[in-house]
């Protein structure tokens, strides 16, 4: 567990050394499919996963509330 | 209450021996925020509205599932369930900087599994693989939430707050939370922190045959047993006490970090800590013990007990996304998550989606997702638990399994919003279908649709 969190931290730290893009250079990054989250239409799918699977969190979905026990 | 949650989470950190790592993460976050202050964009730019006009999203889905391991009938029985959901999300720009979002949804389900909370309905012979016509065979879940976000003049700081409430027949949830997002490096880097609290409460419903064994009830003298014949062990004597605490509280803290890596590549990391307390067992889920003789009415085995789970649960989820713009036609979207909780469950989730632009209006979305988890320490299959165990459940959602999900979607986008309904211009339609199969008998399907409108 500790190793995994340490690796996670190192990956986060390594991201800060990247090139800085100007706004006019972000045409591709601003493509709607490049968004770093699920599309709204997938929200009910994410909810179904959080109800049927033990894992929850770290995906922009619910991390609590509601029952989902049926 | 929030202070208690923080103390509780801190306690779990120490218990898991990850305190030092957490301090490191917090230090990294503080350093990053400090760096952000020093590198604020120095050039004043035109202040664009955060949201140009009111947007309305209508989301709907139809979900169905089936399997042979219903938790309601102790790990053996139909898991058949269908659910229809409709949600409206309205985002309103209050001024240049502030956005109010109202989210209202309704979900209606019918469940053969839940119907067997009360399987002795006088119709067909009771059977865990046959739905009954009881009140628990269907329910409606309704939810309403409001969120408010404020962006700073330079758009490098976003503060948000959220309040939510949801209700179904036997469950009520009240949630609130907030978040802070900072952008820097000319908006190439984003860090965020958020916290949420959910204060939930049950109206506990127990399996029909156990209710006569509640404190003060008449046991085997109850009409249920005089109107139906017990077979097998006729001296039916379950272990049953009603839960005294029917509250369930959840507290979560999440950290996010995203970075543009090149003109065609960006990624993000998320780390969530979740603490749950209270009634974490589901009151109507039966358990059958291997050391207790079986009793039946018709073909339905009478509960030996209801599931018993600890009243606390600590979860950690760490995930990452990496999106790659290959060319004007193809994008690759990937996601990975590791999950751990102190009930003994570890899981890995990995998914990839490859949007392919067919024209300037149509994009298709093939996708694949893999999921696996280990079993909870308290999970026992049908008739595997012992009556001497402290904690037990036969909920196969807490068992060891792996699952594959294949999906396909199509989206239509019209940036000029030529089609109109009243004053709302249709901006996009998303249709998706997903097929999900575990390596057990469980499988599910979901069709989702999303319609996005903008106010003229």
Fold and architecture overview:
The complex is a heterodimer of chains A (70) and B (456). By secondary structure, chain A is mainly α. Helices cover 34% and strands 0% of the residues of chain A. Chain A contains two helices and no strands. Chain A has helices at residues 2-15, 43-52. The longest helix of chain A is centred in the N-terminal third of the chain and has 14 residues, at 2-15. Chain A is flat. Chain B has 456 residues and is mostly beta strands. Chain B has a single domain (61-455), classed as Porin. Chain B contains four helices and 24 strands. Chain B has helices at 2-15, 19-38, 112-115, 223-227; strands at 55-66, 81-93, 98-111, 138-151, 157-168, 171-184, 189-202, 230-232, 247-262, 265-278, 286-287, 295-297, 300-301, 305-306, 312-325, 331-341, 346-353, 356-357, 362-364, 367-373, 401-413, 420-421, 424-438, 443-455. In chain B, the strands form three sheets. Chain B has a 16-stranded antiparallel beta barrel. In chain B, strand 23 (424-438) and strand 24 form a beta hairpin. The longest helix of chain B is centred in the N-terminal third of the chain and has 20 residues, at 19-38. Chain B starts with a helix and ends with a strand. Residues 1-11 and 13-42 of chain B have low confidence and may be disordered. Classes of the chains: A mainly alpha (70), B mainly beta (456).
Q: Give the class of chain B from helix and strand content and strand pairing.
A: mainly beta
Under the CATH scheme, the architecture of chain B is Beta Barrel
What Rg of chain B do the Cα atoms give?
A: 25 Å
Number of domains of chain B: 1
Q: How many strands appear in the DSSP assignment of chain A?
A: 0
Beta fraction of chain B: over 45%
How are the SSEs placed, and which strands pair?
The complex is a heterodimer of chains A (70) and B (456).
Chain A: H1 2-15, H2 43-52
Chain B: H1 2-15, H2 19-38, E1 55-66, E2 81-93, E3 98-111, H3 112-115, E4 138-151, E5 157-168, E6 171-184, E7 189-202, H4 223-227, E8 230-232, E9 247-262, E10 265-278, E11 286-287, E12 295-297, E13 300-301, E14 305-306, E15 312-325, E16 331-341, E17 346-353, E18 356-357, E19 362-364, E20 367-373, E21 401-413, E22 420-421, E23 424-438, E24 443-455
Antiparallel strand pairs in B: 1-2, 1-24, 2-3, 3-4, 4-5, 5-6, 6-7, 7-9, 8-12, 9-10, 10-15, 11-14, 12-13, 15-16, 16-17, 17-20, 18-19, 19-21, 20-21, 21-23, 22-23, 23-24
